[in-house]
Amino acid sequence: xxxxxxxxxxxxxxxxxxxxxxxxxxxxxxxxxxxxxxxxxxxxxxxxxxxxxxxxxxxxxxxxxxxxxxxxxxxxxxxxxxxx
Length: 84
Known about the structure:
By secondary structure, the protein is mostly beta strands. It has a 5-stranded antiparallel β-sheet with strand order 4-3-2-1-5, with no helix packed on it. The protein has strands at residues 25-30, 33-44, 49-54, 60-63, 69-73. A hairpin with a 4-residue loop joins strand 2 (33-44) and strand 3 (49-54). The chain is built from no helices and 5 strands.
């Protein structure tokens, strides 16, 4: 179960990387614009950040959930990443 204190109440927004696990598929937006979609590879709780493998480029990105609007995508749902 995920800690409700790790969301800001905005439709499942994740603001604490401890609520993510490797393998979670996320999307990250800034000012409503989609910037990243990818799979969590590692969390870094001491920094409050997490690494993803970006789906479009295969590039690793270090993201700050306080700077971006991060939500978890449902695996197998219509928004899931193809091939994962």
